[in-house]
Amino acid sequence: MEIVEDFDTNTYRAVYTVKFRDVVYGLHCFQKKSKKGISTPKHDIELIEARLKRAEADYRQTQGG
Predict the structure, then answer these.
(1) Count of alpha carbons within 13 Å of 48, Cβ hemisphere only?
(2) Cα–Cα dist 65/41, whole Å
(3) Which residues contact 33 (CB under 8 A, 6 or more apart)?
(4) Secondary structure of the chain in HEC code, one letter for each residue
(5) What is the pLDDT of residues 7-20, one digit of tens each?
(6) pLDDT tens-digit profile of 21-37?
């Protein structure tokens, strides 16, 4: 899920998952700086994907499986 919020002429995004029961992992928050296009930069997408994998592993470990 992605939340996009505008404040004081700036745009901010928070990307997180609620995939896990009773647990929410914050994966990445950033200020959108690109003036053209609406797509999220590739670097940020790769960072989010890597953090999601770590969150999944952490969740499995803390749930005993």
Answers:
(1) 17
(2) 34
(3) none
(4) CEEEEEECCEEEEEEEEEEECCEEEEEEEEEECCCCCCCCCHHHHHHHHHHHHHHHHHHHHHCCC
(5) 888 777 777 666 78
(6) 788 888 888 777 766 66
Q: What is the token pair recorded at 15? A: 């990307």
Retrieve residue 16's tokens: 């997180």
pTM of the model: 0.68
Q: Which amino acid makes up residue 47?
A: L
How many residues appear in the chain?
A: 65
Task: Measure the CA–CA gap between 50 and 29, rounded to whole angstroms.
Answer: 14
